[in-house]
Amino acid sequence: MKSDIDIAQNAKMKKITEIAKTIGLSADDIELYGDYKAKIKLEAIEKLKDRSDGQLILVSAITPTPAGEGKTTVSIGLAQAMNKLGKKTIAAIREPSLGPIFGIKGGAAGGGYSQVLPMEDINLHFTGDMHAVTAANNNLAALIDNSIYNGNPFRINPRTVAWKRVMDVNDRSLRNVVIGLGGKTQGVPREDGFDITPASEIMAILCLSNDLNDLKRKISEITVAYTYDNEPIIVKDMGFEGAITSLLKDALKPNLVQTIENTPALIHGGPFANIAQGTNSIIATKAALKLSDYVITEAGFGFDLGAEKFFDIVCPYGKFCTSAVILVATVRAIKHHGGIKVKDLSKPNAEAVKRGLVNLEKHLENIRKFGMKSVVAINKFYTDTDEELQIVEEFAKENGFDASIVDYWGKGGEGGLDLAEKVSNLIENYVCKLNPLYNWDSPVEDKILAVAKQIYGAEKIDFTTEAKRDLRLIKKSGYDKLPICIAKTQKSLSDNPKLLGRPKDFLVTVRRILIASGAGFLIPITGDIMRMPGLPKTPSAMQIDIDEHGSIKGLF
Hints:
The strands form 6 sheets. Strands 1, 2, 3, 4, 5, 6, 13, 14, 15, 16, 17 and 18 form a 12-stranded mixed beta sheet that branches. A 3-stranded mixed beta sheet has the order 19-20-21. Strands 7-10 form a two-stranded parallel sheet. Helices cover 35% and strands 18% of the residues. The model has no long low-confidence stretch (mean pLDDT 95). By secondary structure, it is of the alpha/beta class. Helix 14 packs across helix 15 and helix 15 (350-369) packs parallel to helix 16. A hairpin with a 5-residue loop joins strand 11 and strand 12 (232-234). The chain has 3 domains: 4-127 and 251-427, Rossmann fold, CATH 3.40.50.300; 131-246, Domain 2, N(10)-formyltetrahydrofolate synthetase (2-Layer Sandwich), CATH 3.30.1510; 444-526, Roll (Formyltetrahydrofolate synthetase, domain 3).
């Protein structure tokens, strides 16, 4: 069996200028990054504003196993399948982060015969967007500390600096650090820490900005610290918004690439769904909607995380709505929720599948809460038995949802033409509408309860003393009308990663509520969420190599 990287390196790519031409973009509309990558100029996107929009299709999933179940592969495969049916379709997905690539999860460019290319570039440095976000974030951190060192004109209490540094790596040793040691010329000593780049508020802002002016405005509103009188200090107070925005002028432009079957793909931005909004940029999605009849986008992790945030945060800020949801389910993940350990998921076990269907059931219920039409995509693995696949398919239909078994990994777009047809029929003449779960003007506590109770299935929520203090500060600062972006484990519907299936009668504990005033949302922290992951004992980096010809191996 060929590996993902072998398949990718043997694919026949077209020049990116040819791909651009298929969606109506000329050579003057793009900036080339070699032969097979390009950025779409902001002026070209502006020229599209009077065009009508295509239809937006969101790919989400049930609660995944730690290894992942192929949601990106399904997104790419479905876009290829739609094009095979003569439907002008673009895939719009996130950029991978180096942390997971070198850690345990591997790359995020799809798999098998449903990948975006050039796979190695996309998974590594790509067009430099991740590095631009890192540079912008860390320059802001340096400017804040420099202001404190040079007389502290804004009266910042060093103990209240909320702006952390970031790196696009998994490095647990950087979670908590002390800076400014070595004498009075080395800065003001204080506790600090690093997050991973996708957790940076700059990343969230980049993906929620509609244009360059919007990006600059959002950066100006970032809360970086508090005064000794506990008054918030924002970037605009310090006058740094222009400098920070200038580092992101190219990163704001969407990246154009192609799939193995030469389907156009926009890959832009990379916020994680367990700590941020978990979807690609608004500007890329909007451009794709103007350039095609159908856009396939995805939301990170399960429906309870990425999709909820997509509907309650991304859609209102982007002013677009969704025509359908594709819910990815796998026999493997369902067996995991039926009590089977990850190492045993390849063994046939129809009874475990039946036990684990409660997780699928809850996600289907959640789709209905947003008033969405949906098809269940059963992503087939070679270890799945016909009996197991049939159990899942029949369960979906018994619950009022159509289902289709797909093999986009092994067959490319041909492996899921039935799903593409069902999706096309489902949204024919459909008028989409925004149907958020809660009203932004509701009290913060009510918004958190709405998500925890309706989407997660929690009995009630509890706020720690620190979280209650955060609530008072949020109300005092006037940020209580912002939407919420709950940080929660992706491994469970609850805030406890050990509670699989469909947990009931559980309590969600809110430990802190962080203010992301630039991005325009609040971040309730539940459970033990690490914003800087660590590497496993045997990281994926051990498999990655490069030969004397510059050919990279071991990426997956």
